[in-house]
What does this fold into?
Amino acid sequence: MNTTILGYPRIGARRELKFATEDYWAGRADADALLKTGAELRAAVWNELRDAGLDAVPSNTFSFYDQVLDTSVLVDAVPDRYRDLTGLDRYFAMARGVQDVPPLEMTKWFDTNYHYIVPELGPDTRFRLADGADAKPLAEYREAEALGIETRPVLVGPLTYLLLAKPAPDAPEGFRPLDLLDGLIDVYAELLERLAGSGTAWVQLDEPALVADRTEEEIDALARAYTRLGRLTSRPRLMVATYFGTIGTAALQRLSRSRVEAVALDFVAGPGNLDALASVGGLPRKTLVAGVVDGRNVWRTDQRRARATCASLLGLVDQLVVGTSCSLLHVPIDLDAETALDPDVRGRLAFARQKVTEVIAVGRALKEEVPAAPEPLAAAAGIDRAVRERLDSIGDVERGDRAARFAAQRAALGLPDLATTTIGSFPQTPEIRRARADRRAGRSTAAEYERAMKDEIARVIALQEELGLDVLVHGEPERNDMVQYFAEQLDGYAATEHGWVQSYGSRCVRPPILHSDVARPRPMTVEWATYAQSLTSRPVKGMLTGPVTMLAWSFVRDDQPLAETARQVALALRDEIADLEAAGIRIIQVDEPALRELLPLRDADRAAYLDWAVGAFRLATSGVADTTQIHTHMCYSEFGEIIGAIGALDADVTSVEAARSHMELVGDLRAAGYANGIGPGVWDIHSPRVPAAAEMEENLRRALRAVEPARLWVNPDCGLKTRGYRETEASLRNLVAAARRVRADVTG
It folds into this structure.
């Protein structure tokens, strides 16, 4: 084994998985059709990687939703409320819920925009190998074997799985999922023995949790797990893979002493791994998979630098394998499909297929001891002197006194306690998508497109007025994505045509590419917002995406610190906010759902990040009058670690995901001294179920234990783009009814 990758995109070059899954959900296709599509996609990937010349091909990286949910099903960690369902229906109910059964919680996979379904475990959880000989890793290994391809099954490591899990709501105080380690290891041991019996030579166990700060108890659990698995008399060779940063020295020491045969380390996000290896005396008698090709960003690999890194490792390990820093799940599939990109930008890029080629090229150069082939020079990033000079000249980015702002906004807006609103987007119907596609393809004129979008905005405004919402939105029909829409209008960004990346389940995004200095040549949202406001006397929110999220959900240049790039984006947003305010928009929402996502995995690195992230938001939002209300929105991350930063943003109102997590963040914010408005989501929009008014009312009453009525807002968890109008209207009616009932009680 000289070259390998840790994983590969699973959605298909034309998003076949997305469309097949959604057809199944909608009843347009049966389970057999969905399973057939999955088998075809797996076979295509295995054949592609084998034919490319990769020495070791991973398997069990395919998923119909996400790999953590797959692991929960694999080890039968299925809460009782789903037990009446079977097969795919149970699987998708855990991810999305059904009308009478809510889904499991969903959050971000470490510091990425990929989501996973959080395991829900209790002291009564009894792990077992579901499906036995037909368990998914075994079945997919046999599928590949039938094609003549030897693969390395990939599993979420037992320690990472338990550290990502949460106690079930009815678990006793003090219970921790890590308490279940021994029972989980029993199941992993059985699976490894079965894989060995099927002829499997290697298994990859992903333990990215090891690059975060870990306690001594957790390190002891790591040692216990891999001591037990290493001593199995019948098992494949084991490769423990870490990524997204530098492994802790204590964890690396335990792995170096264990019987695992290989360790994979990330030398892109974790350049400190070289020092970590040296500090423990290397990995004698083990294989090191050196992640020198970036699995998370789209820039071409510097072949000479990658080879030099590998050369510096040769004396520290028994055998060296060239690999990716992490799974290629996080990048688009094929750069060759992007024929419209600026050649200078395109020449700096590599997508998943190209990165496989890069891995093989570095491995071949090392093996054959030949010089790396010279590479053509890539174009340099563009510099905007005017933007840089403006940033140098900006001073104070503080807003006025919070209490004064609160009073000024109450008087100016005249909103009731428990004001109702939505997060921004309304359902993107087939007609809306068709209108955008026709405009891109030249099948309609600019005037025809504008008319279609304004018709939809008028419909959305009228619907919200009829539903009785207090603060309205224009519905964002003109927006393809909350980041891409702005990127397409900012200098310094490039957009792809086919650069799809899975975010969760069937949700795919096309992250734009931030390649040069950022500037705003013209207003981006003012026309749509002012048109919507002209249709109603109720306030309409201006809707923008914040600077941190613009970075987190893009592929960002790596030739300058993120903090500098964030300030450039913030300056563009500051100008947009000024134009919205001048046009009479009295509420402006600047979404930052990715604030927690970019939080460094190590405590020591977090203060510096939060300082520039909060500073960028305040740079964008601090230029408005006290009477202009600034909102922000956050969702689907564990926010407990950034409570202080949420307050430091100094938004007048913060709306947060809270329905799946049972309002837990509301109390955390209040305990941390957060005193501004808060809108905890009372409706989980990532589930197709319509929550009853009583369910939302219960959530609101729970929130009122921590927030006074004047500062409590009522809203869904997130935007409604992915929902249909039938469920949207029904759920919003329940939301308004719940708010009115609670409002009547608290105001007398």
Q: What stands out?
A: The chain has two domains: 16-368, 402-486+528-747. The chain has a mean pLDDT of 94. The first helix runs from residue 16 to 25.
